[in-house]
# Entry
Amino acid sequence: MGSIFKKWYVWIPFVLVVFLFVYYFSVVLIYIFTALILSFLGHPIFVFLEKLKIGKLKIPRALNALIALLGVIGFFVMAIVLLTPFIIQQAQLISEIDIYAFLDSFKEPINSLEDWMREYKMIAETETIESIISDYLLGILQDINVKSIVSSALGMVGSLSIGIFSTIFMAFFFMKDNKLLYKGLKMFTPRDAHDEIARILAYSKRMLSRYFLGLLLEQLIMIGMITLGMHLIGLPNALLIGLIAGIFNVIPYVGPIIGDIIGLIIGLTTLQGADFMSESLPLMLKMFGVFMIANLIDNFVLQPLIYSKSVKAHPLEIFLVVIMAGMIAGIPGMILAIPAYTLIRIIAMEFFSVVPSIQKMTESLNTELQKKKKDKPDKEEE
# Structure
């Protein structure tokens, strides 16, 4: 490892290839990353089928990969098919809402807010919150180019079709040949580093498979908890609120806030022309209570189990990484921060373990991997 660390110049071609690939083919990189996630999710199914024997016959590897991939895709398709009728039904409830009656119920607190803003010179005497919002929306509508939107939508449909096909195609081969990525990397990396590359890929697959499966379970639990809570307080569109809050929960730290705000607005639309103090405010407090309980369970039970246990990192460490990734790449960066950081730590552990700071940063990770190493030979799982 020391010689690899010293001979940094042999990595220049690899770094240049990675940089050029990311710069010119970022979309392809997204396809590859998505395909890897699908293969990670299907890997436990694939391993189970590989061990399965019918008499003396063993199921062909390609068929195992196809079944595992179809199982993962089928899960998401089935979830969409089962949930779509409920979502449509609950969306119809929103479409039947008298928006003017809904806004009228907030007239009193809005007037109080306007008076406060005028007192502190935040808005002019002749301005209202309604006029400010109307002017803002009118400006947005004037800038909309319908022809451009239609053209972009058609292009998006085409790109999405290509993306779905490419992702599924690559996911199948990643699952069928678990050394496919390793074979590709061997072409661009120094020969002396091939053993380390193999270990990095094996460790990454093990840890990221566990992370993504845990993340999927976390979102399902959050959707279930919020839906149940909203149902118990009597909201007719509980499932829709639960789904929205659960989907946004994928975004660390910021996502729950966004999902809760959208869910709160949807919940309040069920009250048409209601008095703010006697009806709207109590409902807001009940919904806030449901969101708070669900988020506390997520923050103190689910996330520590998923993040700390699956990627072996301290919660504060994860928090800082997510915040920095968000500053660099926005919401996509926050979503990808944890798996990317896990991969970086594994790479650092393999190539720069002689550095004291790296040893400290990867101590818990190294302990976990050494424990697994005793149970299983140091190679990728078949």
Q: What stands out?
A: The longest helix spans residues 194-232. Residues 189-382 form one domain.
